[in-house]
Amino acid sequence: MTTVEHKVETFDSLNPATDEVVGTYPVHTEEDVAQAVARARNAYTWWNSLGYAGRAERLQRWKGIITRRGAQLAEVVHAETGKPHSDAMIEVVLAVDHTAWVAKNARKVLGPKRRAAGLLMANQAATVEYQALGVIGVIGPWNYPVFTPMGSIVYALAAGNAVVFKPSEYTPGVGKWLVETFAEAVPEYPVFQLLTGYGATGAALCRSGVDKLAFTGSAATGRKIMATCAETLTPVLIEAGGKDALLVDEDADIAAAADAAVWGGMSNAGQTCVGVERVYVHEKVYDAFVAKTVEIAKSVRAGSDPEAKIGPITMPAQLDIIRRHIADAIERGGKALVGGPDAVGEKFVQPTVLVDVPEDSIAVQDETFGPTLTIAKVKDMDEAVSKANDSRYGLGSTVFAKRRGMELARRLRSGMTAVNSVISFAGIPTLPFGGVGDSGFGRIHGPDGLKEFTRAKAIARQRFKPPIALTTFSRTEKTDAAVAKLITILHGKRK
Ligand code: NAD
Predict the structure, then answer these.
(1) Is 241 helix (H, G, I), strand (E, B) or coil?
(2) pLDDT at 3
(3) InterPro entries in the record, alphabetically (predicted)?
């Protein structure tokens, strides 16, 4: 028998600040994907049989490893994305906190609960419980390569599912680190596996027969994922991009709002799904807000030295998009008060603050994903809400206001809103996270995030024979009359 040797295709993960090769990984094929999913199915049976307590204990063990070696994980994130080490640490800390929360709360959220059976079915005991789906495919982005996919991974695992994870081709090393440390905590079965490769590997995962596909990435890829998953009627969770707005009311703390706008817009070099991209400011405080924002933005610099507050643009193709957005804004009458067209270099983009940019320009309509802000003056907060909501996207949003904070937050068409702080909702494990419109659908985090990876299972158990038997062919006219009478007494009253 002759064996045919297949050469394994590989790809390199690069440090975006230096173009140094950080690691080399296989491009997994459709067959590799099928095998991983088959292994996951077997692992799922064991993992699910551990019950909430058994899984919680193992997730706690993993959480301990991530916490103790957090600096090492942050170093991998820094090498593959270029973001400052301390920013990478924040991601790790938040992911650990979410892991602790799911380990502690999965049973309470998903375990069996009694429901009222109602008068007509008073002889029944009704219960609902949320059962694991089986195998979850997770496809992740590169911008928060720990925090973002972990929002699906740990919730799916805690609910009793096995997970097959395809990280972004820009951050395979982060995925490998997570999967290897999980295997240290849970060595028995491959409950959490890694696949590496480009879009085609992700597409193979969509077609592989997983029980749900959790995707985080751009809206354009989200559409492709949904179309591919439709072939096998595989349900999807789509966490896509955003064009988040920050509103500043006339009674807001202006210094705090400006600080939040600059950090929300420029941290991680603006490569944040819930990053601030547009700002709408009440005319009474517009000048003060702009002055403060400009002052703070001027103190932020992109670079790879330890003093630089933001790193490089991780994905080289994004540089062109950022350049186009700034150029278009300026061409159409906008002014750059900080940065501008020259801010876009070969690897780094310096902070850019734009004003007087028309609302229908691409810098206001499309996700820029760079360290840029557009600031617009509004006559009142109704105009601010209406302009903020005039977007295909609806992921996060921010309001700075004293009196009307909660009211304005409720009126914004977005999945999450922070009032008088920025992006705070992402760090609160009990709060759901997800978008509307082109930002996607479904929710990670919190009780909703746990339920996302389960199916509701309803059980009605008869406790005693019903006084009025409805579900039988031996039902009599007398029974029908009794039912008619009962329903009239219950629901027929004129108000
Ligand atoms: P992307 O859409 O380019 O890629 C995301 C993932 O999809 C990668 O792993 C990629 O390999 C895979 N992929 C690409 N084509 C595919 C295909 N045809 N089939 C299956 N998989 C495929 O996104 P990105 O550039 O990695 O991430 C940035 C985007 O992610 C931004 O739009 C950002 O706003 C968004 N994002 C959203 C959230 C959220 O929670 N809503 C969080 C982080 C990032």
Answers:
(1) coil
(2) 45
(3) Ald_DH/histidinol_DH, Ald_DH_C, Ald_DH_CS_GLU, Ald_DH_N, Aldehyde_DH_dom, Aldehyde_DH_NAD(P)
Q: Are 269 and 280 in contact (CB under 8 A)?
A: no
Sequence-separated (6 or more) residues with CB below 8 Å from residue 276 = 244, 245, 246, 260, 261, 264, 265, 373, 398, 422
pLDDT at 6: 63
Name the residue at shortest CA distance from atom 4 of ligand 1. Answer: 217
Q: Are strands 335-338 and 393-394 parallel, antiparallel or unpaired?
A: unpaired
Pocket lining for ligand 1, CB < 6 angstroms: 139-144, 148, 166, 168-169, 198-199, 202-203, 206, 216-218, 221, 224-225, 228, 239-242, 273, 315, 367, 395, 435, 440
Atom of ligand 1 nearest to the CA of 205: 20
Separation between Cα atoms, residue 403 and residue 265, nearest integer Å: 25
Q: Are 47 and 134 in contact (CB under 8 A)?
A: no
- Percentages (nearest 5) of helix, strand, coil residues in the chain: 45, 20, 35
* Catalytic entry in 91, 239, 277, 367: 239
> Which residue, among 14, 312, 271, has the nearest Cα to 141 in the 3D structure?
271
Sorted by where each starts, the structural domains of the chain and their CATH numbers stand as 10-241+446-455 (3.40.605.10), 244-392+396-428 (3.40.309.10)
Q: From the centroid of its chain, how far is CA 6?
A: 37
C-beta of residue 117 within 8 angstroms of C-beta of residue 125: yes
Contact by Cβ (8 Å): 319, 313: yes
Mean pLDDT, 10 residues at a time, the chain of 495 residues: 66 95 98 98 98 98 98 97 94 97 98 95 96 98 97 98 98 98 98 98 98 98 98 98 98 98 97 98 98 98 93 94 98 98 97 98 97 98 98 98 98 98 96 98 98 98 90 91 91 87
**Look-up: residue for tokens 């002052």?**
295
Query: Which tokens is 286 given?
Result: 């517009």
Q: What residue's CA is closest to ligand 1, atom 39? A: 239
Angle 199-207/30-49 helices, nearest 10 degrees? Answer: 50
For residue 492, the model assigns a pLDDT of 93
Ligand 1: centre distance to CA 198 (Å): 11
295 is catalytic: no
The pLDDT value recorded for residue 468 is: 82
Dihedral sign from CA coordinates of 33, 34, 39, 43: positive
Atom of ligand 1 nearest to the CA of 395: 41
First to last CA, the chain: 85
| pTM for the predicted model, two decimal places | 0.95
